[in-house]
Amino acid sequence: MSETFDVDLFVIGGGSGGVRAARIAASHGARVMLAEEYRVGGTCVIRGCVPKKLMVYAGRFADEFEDAAGFGWRLERPRFDWAALKTARDAEVARLEGIYGRNLGAAGVTLVAERAVIEDPHTVRLVGSGTRVRARVILIAVGASPVREPLIPGAELAIDSNGVFELETQPERILVVGGGYIAVEFAGVFAALGSKTTLLHRGPSLLRGFDPEIAAALGEAYGQRMDLRLGCTVERLERDGGAIRATLSGGASLTVDGVLVATGRRPNVAGLGLEAVGITLDASGAIPVEPDSRTCVPSIYAVGDVTGRAALTPVAIREGHAFADTVFGGKPWCVDHRLIATAVFSTPEIGVIGHNEDVARGCYDAIDVYKASFRPMKATLSGRDERVIMKVIVERASDRVVGVHVMGPDAGEIIQAVGIAVTMGATKADFDRTIAVHPTLGEELVTLRTPFVVKHPAGVG
């Protein structure tokens, strides 16, 4: 006697990966239910990529106003209104949330505004109502949330990256703790909007895992825009009247109006019921999955940040799509995580795809590195001192481009286009025979001719 189910697919989590999986599965004819306890759209739409990028745009107008003078514009001193930005940003987030919900409905997905937990390989319980739903397949797409580690005295006085979007007023002085994407981006935003900003990181450089030369250049640029303190930690936080006094390693102290801790994110697995079905987390607290996103339980899958594979919205979307096509569409495919283009919306901006120089040196017998460092054309009249840096890393034996790194204006837009070529396996010869678009920043990538030769560890080069 065949088992009956209430739905074919139950998705836990209404972020980018879960929403895409639900819609595609429904388009394949599956009966789909999705539970989201907070707001549809997930980290990216509600409290991440989208609202943060809007704040990045707001901050960059400060440079534009300043640079305009070099091009003959005479402006009155501009004034920034935090409340106006918050109102406009929040309205846009609400608009996008509505679109996500309507799209789910239009696809035939049943949306439930409750927390869901797993009771067995085919049963999900809705916590608010107590309703139990039987599903042929369960997809976990609950994402990740900020961590507050290490714990220090007074840690409750700090906010995390979610809390930034709740700030009703702009802090005049802010301490940002961390050295990854989120800390770097928010430090850049606050500094650009006029807050006296200190970015503090315990490591020797920002953006661990990025090309060391690019990371060092960003550190130099940030050192001119804010108070950058590397190799430093916060020992404790305490109230100082209406402000916060941070005691730092080495005994120094800093008085600020706000502290943002952005030292990492952790998968949202607490209380999800994984232990009931025998799913054991990996060392990072993520759910281990196979390339097709299947967990150790055949009827349960997971996509997005909760898997710890690559904490990027476009990756979650691709994983959700691949899952739905594979399980419900009869079109099996897996996401290739080996080449992922990404951007850091710092100012200056960074765009990356492929290996950094150190990793490439360890992967190949010999590589050639092509580099350019220059002031962008706009700076010739604006007088701005920041430079553009570009690196193209090539495996010598095959002439294949295995890494491209850009720091400068619109680096994210540049790397998106370059990512197509690198993903297709373009060679340096392919880059060389591409006619440049002049005058642009991106033309440098197809006009680099003389490599900086890098030898591999054994000395072959």
Proper CATH architecture of the largest domain = 3-Layer(bba) Sandwich
List the total number of helices. Answer: 13
In angstroms, what is the radius of gyration? 24 Å
Average pLDDT figure: 94
The CATH class of the largest domain turns out to be: Alpha Beta
Summing up helix and strand content along with how strands pair, one would put the structural category as alpha/beta
N-C termini distance: 67 Å
Number of strands: 22
Share in β-strands: 15-25%
In the CATH hierarchy, what is the superfamily of the largest domain?
A: FAD/NAD(P)-binding domain
Number of domains: 3
Q: Main sheet?
A: 7 strands, mixed
Instruction: Please tell me what the overall shape is.
Output: globular
Measured as a percent range, the helix fraction is 25-40%
Uncertain segments are 454-461
CATH topology of the largest domain: FAD/NAD(P)-binding domain
In short:
This protein has 461 residues and is α/β, with parallel strands linked by helices. Helices cover 31% and strands 24% of the residues.
